[in-house]
Amino acid sequence: MDLQELLSFLEIDTPMEFEYFENFADLVECEEIIPESTLFLLFSETDKRIVGEIIINYFDDMLESLPDDSNDIYTLLEKIKLSMAGLIKASDDQDILSRFPEQLNAFKNWYCFESAVACKDPDTGEEKLLTLRDALTLARLQKLEGEEYIYDFSECMNYEVDDYMVNISELAEPGR
After folding, report:
1. pLDDT digits (tens, 9 = 90+) for 73-94
2. Which segments of the chain does DSSP mark as H helices, in order?
3. Rounded to whole angstroms, how far apart are CA atoms 11 and 37?
4. What angle do CA 131, 132, 135 make, to 5 degrees?
């Protein structure tokens, strides 16, 4: 997938239009492989501060859908969020920016394809093995429909989080 195909998939005309939650959600949840070189071209022309905020919002939305007793996966996703948002916000340097597409693809592959969550229906005993993305979708539906599942996220804990960069002044911002 080249940059024009990616922009068309995201339904935007230029990388500068990558400024909405849905843009990031579509990108992360896309079933197609997106080369790191294409992601680099996209993010080299976006507003890094806006993308960082989108990442934070995306992960916060994800964290809200986790069942209440999911402390380990919650902590891991929080670390991933801080790492990715910190990396993109600090990516004025081309060397730093070149690391972001690699991290994004690693997360996308893990989240959508490689992770495994055991989801058990306590009434029937039926168990489904879903990716983290699909398990969180089930958890969202569960909250709407009142069905109950028991989630085992232990097989998802094998994700390696890179060191993240945090601008100290951003931590001091009101509301953060």
Report:
1. 999 999 999 999 999 998 777 7
2. 3-10, 21-29, 36-43, 48-65, 71-89, 94-109, 132-145, 168-171
3. 19
4. 85
